[in-house]
Design brief:
Keywords: Cell membrane, Hydrolase, Membrane, Protease, Quorum sensing, Transmembrane, Transmembrane helix. The protein is 79% helix and 0% strand. It is mainly α. The chain starts with a helix and ends with a helix.
């Protein structure tokens, strides 16, 4: 569905600017990524208006995306799957209440997963040279470890969920 919409928009865009050096395929890919992000944010924020957890959702959306950029992770087969799974995951995290012990444990688990596994799949989604991967790993670990100062359950669970996508991404690639 998202891919078809992106292809239609890309085709229209290319017809409007036929001399643009980018192909319809490149436009389609870029537009599908933007639509994917838009639908995840819109659906998750829309649901949060009904659950009253908009602050937590904003924290989860930003923290998950930041960590994902630094560490990579598993990708689903389609953009629609990504939208549905991400929306359910983020909404679920926002509704899940954990105490301080679980917050610390989830944060520590995320740091350890990143230390041992990150990055996963970065080379397929980024043009960043591999010589920078150790710095990205360190930045990711520091980002997650910052939650030891905040002790935010939403951050802890968001970081842990993103870290688990590293494990799943590693398993799928094996």
């Amino acid at each position: 569905m998202i891919e078809m919409l992106a292809a239609r928009i890309a085709g229209s865009l290319k017809r409007s600017v036929p001399d643009h050096p980018s192909s319809v395929e490149v436009f389609t890919f870029a537009i599908s990524m933007m639509l994917n992000l838009f639908f995840i944010v819109a659906a998750t924020l829309g649901i949060s208006l009904h659950t009253g957890r908009t602050g937590e959702i904003a924290t989860i959306l930003i923290s998950f995306a930041l960590l994902r950029q630094l560490t990579g992770g598993m990708h689903l087969k389609s953009n629609l799957q990504c939208v549905v799974v991400s929306t359910i995951l983020f909404t679920g995290i926002s509704l899940f209440a954990v105490g301080q012990w679980w917050t610390i444990t989830a944060t520590m688990a995320a740091v350890l997963i990143i230390f041992f596994i990150a990055p996963v799949g970065i080379s397929q989604q980024s043009t960043i040279p591999s010589k920078y991967y150790p710095y990205m790993k360190l930045a990711a670990m520091l980002l997650v470890a910052s939650n030891f100062l905040f002790l935010s359950p939403a951050l802890a669970l968001s970081f842990l969920a993103q870290s688990i996508t590293l494990v799943l991404g590693k398993v799928v690639r094996s």
